[in-house]
Amino acid sequence: MPITIDGSSGISDLNGSATTPLYRGNSSNTGIYFGVDTILFAEGGVQAAEINSSGNLRLVNNLSVGNTAPSTSGSGITFPATQSASSNANTLDDYEEGTFTPTVAFGGGTTGITYATQVGYYTKIGNFVWITLSVTLSNKGSSSGNFQILGLPFNIGQNVIPSMRMSSTTFGGQYTAVSQTTQFELQETSEAGTLSTITNSDATNSSQIILTCVHNV
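and the corresponding structure tokens:
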């Protein structure tokens, strides 16, 4: 390989490649090499990352946060399974998405309750959680008391964000929710603004609740 040294271009033709990086340690195919106005990083003989002339960093695969292992599925940012909260308001310190199984209780009791449908999805970004769930009963059982939805994936903060939407095959009107750790207690608001509690006597053996909301944690 020819080597050229002059006062303007320095040393040329020593850029290296992903399979044989110019600067490497014990592994012959892992290290740093160079492209046109670009610094590149190789691992195991393939390009892993680069810094271009605009100062942008590009990763070929995933970036991990909080010393967690990066995901091997697709490309993105991998956060720890348990949030490592930051006190900096400008720091995104948590992201998670998944499913959960919502359940129904009346006054905390679940005797004889059976289901036709139990579906729940959530996305958590920072300290907010977006939830969508659908529960359809096949038997409301014999427990009595306030109508509750249990099994939410995260504790609810002091206030549920007022973007809650709920529909039902049994109830009419608008709905609010009372935060109780990982459960909702359903209440109905009439057109006149009167708040009333929904109980087992309002439910049927085929009641369906479809709920979408945002809450803080």
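(Above: one complete record from the training split.) The two ends are 61 Å apart (CA to CA).
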